[in-house]
Amino acid sequence: MPATDLVQQGKSAYQQGRYDEASKSFAAAAASAAKLQDRIFALDLQIGAMVKLKAVDPALDVAKSVIRANRKDCRGYIRAAQIERLANRPQAAVRWYHHGLKHVSPSDALYPSLQSGLKKCQALSVAQTMASRPCDPFASLPLEIANMVLQHFDYRQMVAILRVSRGWRSFVSKEPLITDTIDFSKARNKVTIAAFRACLRRLTGYPSSAYLTNLTDPALKDMQVRLPTWQQRNTLISYATDSRELALIPSHLPKDPKLVSLEVSASLRNAIDTVVRCHRLKRLTISCPYEPVRNWVHTWEVGQQHAGLEHLQIVANSLQPQVGIADLALPNLRSLNLCGFQIPNELEKLTSLEELHLKNCAMTRAIDLPTALKDLSFTNMKYQFRAGDKPNPELHLPDLVHLRAQMDAWDISWSCLGLDLNSIQSLDVQDNRLTEEQALIFSKMPRLRRLILRDARLLTACFVKDLLEASSHHIEYIGLSNCDNLDPGTAAWAKLRYNVKVDIRTIAWDDGGRRIAT
């Protein structure tokens, strides 16, 4: 009988479930086949019938004979790996797949089947070698590793995992972040009195860190009763609040408070009366609401009282400054942020200052900047910067990396700032009077990588082209916000021609009066 008839006979028997007869018919077809491809085709069908009979070892021998007949044919390797997987030997199946990928051409139609089969068998082999343990990780992990994992959680996450299980609650509730800290700074909703008291019950004593923000009125009143006792116990190291009612009371502070970090929202008078008693402060943030009394002026000798201060931020919302800073000899101050405040006249004494942020500040003369600055931002400046007592020099800041400037119509022009821009890597400028001729100075900044221009309505697409041609391809990002004369196709052109990302946005307002970017 011809081989093709034997193959059809075997297929009919296979469809009827007579796998033994089908296997014999396919074997006879392979023996009588004249061509190699017909023989391999019949042997492949025979292996399928033998697998149905669960004759694993004889089927594997037939698969090996297919491989010996043609080592460049995928079917032998796929069948051999399939049989090894059925025999629960995934590592042996991996070896067959490796042999197939080594000998079979990548152009073969079944080559992707070898690749996908290899990945599945490798995953199965790993799963058998490293079986997962369905148990509590805190019950199986070493104590040191569990503590290392918990160090990456903040207070809100720690409180959330207390509810996972009794084992987690028993383990996590002993952590210092739970036993001596209250932190509501990342609360998504207002903190209720029940949640506030639940956090208090987890404390083992008086807290060392308290961040009391987003409190409801009942929780706020409860905290007002407890605050004097907390102050007198002198356990607080870090304290922050956004409520005037929870500002520290100067008369209740001990002689030598342990406070290292303080963030309060209070009147200038009350805030300074509190701060002058805390000589260990390293980080200080004061937010001052509007005060109707404007004839009260105070001089704060900060240098004599807080020599260890590293970060200072004062946000005043009054219509005019009421407090001046004197004796600014702070050798460790690295960050200074002033808003609505009178700028001290001795900034050059801050030899370690790296960050300076000024917004709507009052000035009595030109500003002398320390040369160690790395980050400088200012808004609505009316006076030129200068270095020391030299008359109108070009200010040289060799370490300045980030500069943000916002200027309105009544400010001096950008070209009159007198800043040396050679070291700047990131520049953010808002100026509606900036011309293309003035803006081309940015192309001469050798280290500039990121440039953002806001409200520069006089700039056109020609400016972007001239800037990229003159900048020697060192700029990586250009952000243009509310620049009306720019062609929308400028971004695609810059990406294709210079591989520079240009982000063009138009500022609009929604129905609620909020600014939106399109």
The CATH topology label of the domain at 3-129 is Serine Threonine Protein Phosphatase 5, Tetratricopeptide repeat
Strand order of the largest sheet: 1-2-3-4-5-7-9-10-12-14-15-16-17-18
CATH class of the domain at 3-129: Mainly Alpha
Average pLDDT works out at 81
- CA-based gyration radius: 37 Å
Structural class: alpha/beta
Q: Based on Cα principal axes, name the global outline.
A: elongated
Percentage of residues in DSSP E strands: 15-25%
Distance between the termini: 77 Å
CATH architect. name of the domain at 3-129: Alpha Horseshoe
User: pLDDT under 50 segments (min length 5)?
Assistant: 292-296, 387-393
What's the CATH superfamily of the domain at 3-129, by name?
Tetratricopeptide repeat domain
Total number of strands: 20
Largest sheet: 14 strands, parallel
Give the tags.
518 residues, alpha/beta, Serine Threonine Protein Phosphatase 5, Tetratricopeptide repeat, 17% strand, elongated
Can you describe this structure?
This protein is α/β, with parallel strands linked by helices and 518 residues long. Among the domains are: 3-129, Serine Threonine Protein Phosphatase 5, Tetratricopeptide repeat; 428-518. The chain contains 19 helices and 20 strands. The protein has helices spanning 3-15, 19-32, 36-52, 56-69, 74-86, 90-103, 111-129, 137-140, 143-150, 155-161, 166-172, 176-179, 193-202, 217-233, 268-275, 302-305, 436-439, 461-470, 490-498, and strands at residues 181-183, 209-212, 238-241, 261-265, 283-288, 298-301, 311-316, 323-326, 335-339, 355-359, 367-368, 375-379, 385-386, 402-407, 426-431, 450-454, 477-481, 501-505, 507-509, 515-517. It has a 14-stranded parallel β-sheet with strand order 1-2-3-4-5-7-9-10-12-14-15-16-17-18. It has a two-stranded parallel sheet with strand order 6-8. Helix 18 links the parallel strand 16 and strand 17 (477-481). Helix 6 packs antiparallel against helix 7 (111-129). The protein is elongated, with a radius of gyration of 37 Å. Residues 292-296 and 387-393 have low confidence and may be disordered.
